[in-house]
Amino acid sequence: MKKFLSIILAVAMFAFPAFAAEEVLVGEISTSTGDFAAYGFAEVESVKIALEEINAAGGVKVGDKMLPMRVIQYDCRTRNEDMVNAARRLVNQDKVVAVIGPSGSGLCISAAAVFNRGHVAHLGTLPTNPMVTMDERGKVRPYNFRICFLDPYQGAILATFAVKNLNLMKAAVLYDVSSDYSQGLREFFVNEYRKMGGEVVADEGHRGEDVDFRAQLTKFKEAKPDILVLPTMGKCTPLAIKQAREMGFTCPIIGGDGYGDFWWEIAGEAMENTYWVSHVDKGDPKLKGFFDKFEQKTGTECKEFMNAMMAYDCLYWLKDAIERAGSLDPEKVRDALEQTKDLKLMHCTLTMDEFHNPKGKEGIMLKAEGGKTSYFATIKPEM
Fold first, then answer.
1. Which end of the chain is least crowded, N or C, by CB within 10 Å?
2. What is the 3-state secondary structure (H, E, C) of 294-351?
3. What share of the chain has pLDDT > 90, as a percent?
4. pLDDT in tens, 225-263
5. What CATH number should be reported for the domain holding residue 185?
6. Inside any domain, residue 95
């Protein structure tokens, strides 16, 4: 525990130098190491960009004062126990006004109780499982919010795309039994797909750390699907894609918003003829300035663009809530987050529904082709 805290504190102090005594103190939890490190890098760097912009423009208006914002960032190493430890430190010791990130549903769910007991709002970047903002009894978690749409919605996007856009009615599903995200997305896809007349001819699980999927894929060969569905994220997905192509699967492969550009480095040409749900069209002209700035600041292309955009907009969403609250009281900031309506952000206009989820966001399907993904279709499922 002590070793963990010393590591994350060093990261926080290195990344964000201190301002004057009176400041807006925000927490960020990232997956800077571990299986989701690529997603974490994108989120941390994007928050840095937003923070720099906000302070360069004068900071945050709190009542009649303009205050600088400071972000304390901790790495949870893509581990639930470290996520909980980081949340406790931010809430109980650092006394932040709110916390942003990370993207993993399981990570966010693991720390939900910490934020609710501490009365500090948590803004998830890309955690799509319904349980992130709703507890086991079906009640809204008062201090948990998200900027992304949910798995029931993207499960319906995938089913609609498979049936109506691709006209493929026999699916094989390969999912991660150790992931809340993957289990949820699999369930919602399967339910919607069957409602639309599709048949799930094979349904196999694995664990996130697995690297060999040939046993499951062999069963898929026997079932003869016309589409493979991978509701997963992290390195296991491109490994499974590569092995599927090596075993002769030429059919389309589709999956959710766990897509990452780093997958090309693992799967190579096997990524061709795959399709992925997205919250963001990277080719949208209005986003070009942000992605150019990201590359200028980091020296690298913004590959995990969904994570980057969500994290960037989360900080601006929080700034808006603090200014509407006119206070650094975390409970008043929570109330303002809940009341968000028609807030124009970089990637969307944001309105919160009664369950602390964004209202009316469209889903985008990306097609992997020629070493990159690009916009393919906008999908609005009937739900």
1. N
2. HHHHHCCCCCCHHHHHHHHHHHHHHHHHHHHHCCCCHHHHHHHHHCCCCEECCCCEEC
3. 89
4. 999 999 999 999 999 999 999 999 999 999 999 898 899
5. 3.40.50.2300
6. yes
